[in-house]
Amino acid sequence: MTSGKPFPVNAWYPAAWGNEVDRTLKARTICEQEIVLFRRTDGAVAALEDACWHRLLPLSMGRLAGDQVVCGYHGLVFNASGRCTHMPAQQTINPSACVRAYPVVEKHRLVWVWPGDPALAKEALVPDFHWNDGAEWKGEGGTFYSLKCDWRLVVDNLMDLTHETYVHSDSIGHDAILDTPFEVTHAENTATMTRWMIDIDPPPFWAKQLGRPGKVDRWQIVTFQAPAVVIGDVGVAPAATGAPQGDRSHGVNGAFLAAIAPETETSCHYFWNFVRTFRTDDEDLSRALQRAHVNDGKGVYDQDHVVLEAQQRAINRHPRQPFYNLNIDAGALWARRIIDRMLEQERGPQGSVQAAE
Amino acid sequence: MTSGKPFPVNAWYPAAWGNEVDRTLKARTICEQEIVLFRRTDGAVAALEDACWHRLLPLSMGRLAGDQVVCGYHGLVFNASGRCTHMPAQQTINPSACVRAYPVVEKHRLVWVWPGDPALAKEALVPDFHWNDGAEWKGEGGTFYSLKCDWRLVVDNLMDLTHETYVHSDSIGHDAILDTPFEVTHAENTATMTRWMIDIDPPPFWAKQLGRPGKVDRWQIVTFQAPAVVIGDVGVAPAATGAPQGDRSHGVNGAFLAAIAPETETSCHYFWNFVRTFRTDDEDLSRALQRAHVNDGKGVYDQDHVVLEAQQRAINRHPRQPFYNLNIDAGALWARRIIDRMLEQERGPQGSVQAAE
Amino acid sequence: MTSGKPFPVNAWYPAAWGNEVDRTLKARTICEQEIVLFRRTDGAVAALEDACWHRLLPLSMGRLAGDQVVCGYHGLVFNASGRCTHMPAQQTINPSACVRAYPVVEKHRLVWVWPGDPALAKEALVPDFHWNDGAEWKGEGGTFYSLKCDWRLVVDNLMDLTHETYVHSDSIGHDAILDTPFEVTHAENTATMTRWMIDIDPPPFWAKQLGRPGKVDRWQIVTFQAPAVVIGDVGVAPAATGAPQGDRSHGVNGAFLAAIAPETETSCHYFWNFVRTFRTDDEDLSRALQRAHVNDGKGVYDQDHVVLEAQQRAINRHPRQPFYNLNIDAGALWARRIIDRMLEQERGPQGSVQAAE
Fold first, then answer.
1. What CATH class has B130-347?
2. How far apart are CA C36 and CA C59, in angstroms?
3. B106 touches chain A (CB under 8 A)
4. Cis peptide preceding A227, ω within 30 of 0
5. Within an 8 Å CB–CB cutoff, is residue C87 touching chain A?
6. N or C: which end of chain B has fewer CB within 10 A?
C-alpha cells in the first residue's frame, strides 16, 4: 500500500478538527491520498477517495445528497461506503464501480483516518490525545495545513526542546534547558524525553503564569506516540515544593499537543493545541496562549514553521547528505527508530509491501 | 515527427482567429512546437518556427520587415519560407540556414497550421467548419488559450452532453437528456452522437429562444471530425411539427463549434463559437449568447473549464489509472478510437514514426 | 568537485560587492553551492557553507557572534574556518563537525570566492578587474542577481558586439559595427576581439560624450579572462588624430566591466560596471551612465537581460539542438574553447573529476 514512502500507512492520522467537518464536502490529502470528508446525516464522519471512479474528477467538486456524494461532472452517485449507486442514463450499475472508503474515527475533537489496510484499523489504536477533549485541560489550538516539510521534521523538532533556546530565545528559551541533563526512555510504540530543571529562575512565560516570584522547578516530559503524536507535559512549580517527587499542586501545568499527518513526502498537516489545568475558565488567557503560539508569523510555532520549511528546502538541495546527531537528539532518534520499524514492517521481510492493496 | 505524444501531428489544427493575425509577430505553441505567425504583404498568413537558427531566440521577439522576419538578437533575416536571407557582417550565407515553415491555410475565419509532414498537408483536409463563416449561421465566439488539460478531454466533454445535466444544471441541463437513448454512428474520420428528445418541456434556454409555450422536440446531433473538431447541431421545434422527420422550419436551430489545438501534452487552445440560424441580425442576442458561454467564470464553458482543468490535475496525480467508461461515453469512445488509429498510423507498424523529420 | 556541470569550479568568481558584506549574514549561491558571507571583526570577509553540519538549516538564518556563526536552530557555533566550536548541552565536540570554508579574496571592490579545491586557490589568479578600483577609471555599476540564463550566454553576448545593432539600435548600435571587420586573438586564458571603425559618424551615445562634431575613429577591444570576466575597452576619437596608432588623447575612453558567477546551471549573477577616464568628477554623468545601462527595464543591459532569459528558455525547450555559429561569433567561440578546456582539465583524462572533494 506504500513503497518507499517516508510514512507508515497503517496508522491513524488526524485529517481535520471535528468542527471543520460538516454537511459540505471537504478535500484533504493524507499520505498522498486525496480524501473527501463529510458528515453523514447520523452525525458520523465519512471519508472517501476524492476521485470519481469514472473520470477522476474530485468528488469534493460535486455535492452531497443525503449520505451520498453526487459527482459534479456526470452525476455518478456514491454512498458513504464508496459504492456507486447511480450511473447516468443507464439502469445497470457496474458492480465494481466504487471509490475507496477510509476507516474514520472522530475522537478527542479530531477526525482520524487510516490510509492503509482497513482490516488493520482498530479504534483502540487511535492515539491518546485526551488532553484535547476540552474537559480537564483547556486551550485553543490550530492547524498548519500543508506545512512544507517532511512530517518527521516536526517530530524531531518537538522531541528536542533545546531548540527553544535558539528559536524561541525571547519567550520560552532558557539556558537551563542546555545545562540540564535529560533522560530518554522508550517502549514499543512510545519514546519519552524527561528533563527536570531544579531550582532555577523561571523563563518569562512561566514566571508570568505562576504569578509569584522565586526559584522554580521546571519540567519538560515529552512523549512520542508512534507514528505522529507528541504530547509535551510542561510546567513549573515553586522550588522545593515537591514537584519532582510528584506533588505539582503548587505549580502550573500545561501540555503542548501535536498530531501530525503526512500530506506528501515533503509536506504535512500539523494539528496543535496548548492546554493547561490552571485558570481553565480564563478565555482571555486561552486566546492569549493561542496567539503566543501562532500569530501572523510572530508566535513560537510560527518561528518553528520558518525553521522547518527552511530545513526541508536545505534537505531538498542536499538529498544524499545524512543527518549528524548530537546528544540532544536522543529523543528524536528513538522516535525515528520506532517509525523506521513501522516502515520496515509494512514493507515486509522482502522489502515488499505487506498491507492489502 | 512525434513519438509517444498524445496528438497526431499530420493534421490541421487551429492556431488563431484570422483577425488575430496581422502585421505583427504572434507567438503560438501548437503540438509543442513554437510557431510565429504573421500576415504577409499579400494578405496570406505565414507560420515559421519561432526560434532563430543561430542562437534560438524566439523570432517573435524580432520585427517584421516586408515579408521577412528580422531576429531581435543578431539581425539574421528569414523569408516567409523560412530561408535565411541575411547574416550580420558576412556576405556568404550558410545554405542550410533556415527555420521550419509550416503549411498554413486561412479558412472559415480561422488560421490552420499543419505541424507534421508538410508533404501530407492538403488544403482539402481542412475540417468542415463552414458554420463559422459568418454567412448563413451567425454568432460571436472566443478562445480558451492554454486551457490546462489534454486536448482529448475537451473532445470527451463535447461528445457526451449528459454532463450538461450536472455541470450546467441551471441553463441547458435537463433530465430528459438522461432519460433519452441516443445513437452513435461513425465513419472513417467522423463519429456522430444523435439524441432526439420527443415531446418534452424545453429547458429554460431553449424555451426562451423558441419564444412560444408548449412541448417541444429537442435534438442534439454532435459530430466529431478527427482529430480536433466537434460540431453540435442543437435545437428545438414545437412538438409534432415534423422536426425529427426533417422539417425544422417551425423551430430554432443553433450549433456549437469547437476547434481544438494541442499546445502541450496537458494544455490546449480551444476555439469555440455558438452560431444560429434564427434572429441572425440580432447582435444583442449574439453578445448575450457569447456571454452565456464565457462570462468571467459564470458562463457554461467557464463551468466546463473548471471541470476540465480539475480532471487533468487528477489525471496527473493518478497517472496509471485507466478510465472506466459508461454507456454515455459511446460517442467519446469512437472519437478516441479514431484518434488512436491516427496516432498508430503516424508511429508506423514498428511503432516508429513514419512522417518525415 | 563537479561533474558534468557547465562551469569550472577551480576559479575565482565574484560573490558580492565589497560594500554588500558587513556584520550580518548574507546568503549567496555560487556554482550551486550555498555560501554564507560575513565580514569578520578584523575586516576580512569569510565565506562558509550555508548549511549547518547538524541538520542543514542555513547558517545565514542564524546570527553572528564575534567572528563565529551561531546556528538558528540548535545553537551550534562555527568559527570563520568552519570548525564547530560549540554544541548544545554537551562538552565534547565531534572533531569532524565542521562546515566547508571557502577561499575568499576581496579585491577590485568585489568579493571573490573559489568554489573548487582550496589548495588551488591562489590570490594571484584573481582576474584583473582594476578598472573597477575607483581610481583612474570612474563609474557606478550594479548587479543582476539570479539572471535566469547559463552564465556562458552572458559571455557570448559580450564577446560579440554585433548585437548592439539589433538589441540596442536606439543608443549604441551602428551599422558600422556590421560593416567593419574585426580580429580575434587569444592566449592561454584570454581571448580578445578588436574592431576599429575608421572615419565614421559616431553613434548618438558617443557623439554626446565626445562633445564635438565630425567623423570619428571608434574602437571596441573586448577581452575575455577565463572563465568569467569580460572587459570592453571602448571609445571614439576625432578621425585622423592618431587613435588607431595609440594616441587616444583627443578622444573619450570608456570600459564596460563584467564579472559573472554561475549560480546554477541556468542562472548566474552578473556584476557590471561602466567606467570612463573622461569627466571623472562628474557624478551626474556617472549616474546617467548607470541609468543608461540599467533603468527599470529601459537600459541597454535591461534589453540584454530580456534577450538572455528568452534565449535560455528557448534552450530549455530545445535541449539537444546545437548552436550554429556565424563569423561574428569568433570571439565567443574562443572564450567557449577556453572554458571547455578548463572543464576538461577539471574532469581529468578519464572524465573523472581531479579536484579534491
1. alpha beta
2. 7
3. no
4. yes
5. yes
6. C
